[in-house]
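pasting for ref
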Amino acid sequence: MKPKVLFIIDSFEQGGSERQALQLLRQLHETGECQLHLACLQDKGSLRAETEQLNLGEIHEYPLTSFYNLNFAKQLRRLVVYLKEKQIDVVHAHCFYTNIFGMTAGFLAGVPARITSKGETGLRTPMQKLAERMSFRMAHRVIANCLVVQNQLIREGVSPNRIIQHYNGLDLERLKVDVGLTQSAARARFGLPQDRSLVTIVANLRNPVKDHPMFLRAAARVRATVPKAAFVIAGEGELMPGLKQLASDLGIAEDVHFVGRCDDVASLLFASNVGALSSTSEGFANAILECMASGLPVVATDVGGVREAIIEGETGYIVPSGDDRMMAERIIQVLANDETARMMGNRGKSLAAEKFSKDRHLQNTLELYDELLSGHDSSVSSENRPSLRGTGPEASQNKFALKPHRN
């Protein structure tokens, strides 16, 4: 009997956690080993259309305005009823808000396998952290997307036996460019200059934690030393007007190209020379992996699991958070030597394919479901539980004042 799995995501926006969750959902669908269901807190975003192609049935929305009002109780009751009616075996949540909402409902409904995800090391207030720890207690497993997040969870009191570490899965096919595409043509797609060295950052413009101002200050320093350098900011959000003003104040408005939301990341990175990340906090940044997989040397701040992705001096450079001077120095260093940059990019591309493939992430997930549902985990009863064993073609062979703030 195939397990019935409910994924709960925040929205269908182009955020890292959403893209990771929906990529995994698609892979699970392709295996045919689970009966999949999908729910969200906000039924909006550009990823909605491609998700509908999976034909998973109705996608239920559970809109939240806070974690402490009557609406939360109403939405919670709706989800509990749904979980019982559908006899869901696994609730798999993918971010802070869905962790709290999904684990609470899963606990009340008696769902036999409850899984949360933790993908960042900062951002939360003490009361938010308390609420999240309560959700972890109702979960059978907490997936940390890097060792740094795993260690932080342990320091904050989460039982090591409850934590499992899975790196994000990278869709290498998504990062392949069209056959015959030249760098010149790729740049033309985005209206980027042909005669400049492009330093690119891909991150949403909604959350200050991405610290685009640091990137712009570093850009001004680089521009003063490397006149041929130009800078690309890909992402959308309400912070864009302020960032454009800062670029103007720094005297680099003509050198910074805001391309907005990017649905063709592969071509944009192919058009670039260096990838950058300036965040003050991260879990395990997908943007770094995408740059590496595209053959770009990366200069990134020392946050979250960056040191688990970048090999200092071999695939890029790691700089202190907020240190725009050192970021500029490292970018200049990469731009000054084409051969070194090429070697860094090739090494990063090999490492990304070897260590962070989406297939490995899928296998880790299937094994986790099997562990929880087959009785290998003492916290889950094996009686009458479905298992991934025996399914598939190979079987015969073997708040507290917590108002949601969207990232």
